[in-house]
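Morning F.,

Quick status update on the modeling queue. The single chain you submitted on Monday has been processed. Sequence for confirmation:
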Amino acid sequence: MSKIHIKGIVSLLAVAAIGMAALPVTANASSSYYNMGRAQYVRTKKAMYVGIYQKKGNTYKPLLKKKGSLLRVSSTTQKSSNSPVLAAFTSGAVHYNRLNQLKFNDTPTVPLTKANFQKVALKAPIRGTVLRAGSGFKEDSNGNFGNASAFYLTLDNYLQYYSKSAMVKYDAAGTMIIDGGHRMDNYKPTASAKMTKTTVKGNTTTVQYRTPIKGVPGKKLGAHKYQIKITYLNTIGHKSFGESYGSNWGNYTINGRPYFSGIVNDY
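Structure tokens below.
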């Protein structure tokens, strides 16, 4: 089987802009513009349309986001220092069923102002990180790199799990990245469980969830109560695969079992 490399950072899904006939968004003095820096997430300060569309029958209609909705900033632009910063948004890495009903306008059109949005730093920044079982990438006899089970935590509080066979199907090249929640990054999970509590202390993220998932090393705490502790070991692994491919990855443990997060790159 020949290796087909799939780029880890995929092109974003472009959707034609639909006229936004919602509550007006605000573009005031330059002092209200955000200097985004490395910020990726915001919450809306009022109900507004932000270029996200939800499937209704055979078409997509603009989705009104409620006050306090969490959004991922997918791109920004500014024509001049005197003009507002404009942004495009996605819903981020949310559950498969939810994301499967959404499309996004990839052209920045919404003024990214303090009147419209509040910056957010995720309490659990590990969300959307693909955690793979094992201590690093291994190439199997069929030339597959994505050949171990994996899971990630969604922004809307689901643990989304993929079996080994699912990962071979979706990620033979070992390049799966959940890049901002676009539908082309939306892979149907083998199983999922609703998360009920998430806490972060140092390098450890503790997650409690309701339903056991075969393949996730959860600890049973009680009826409908399971727990995993995700610990980043602050170490990096590396391996080369001949002269064409290689990978760096971060090392984790899940309830003491080895996991890692990374992608395979071509040279």
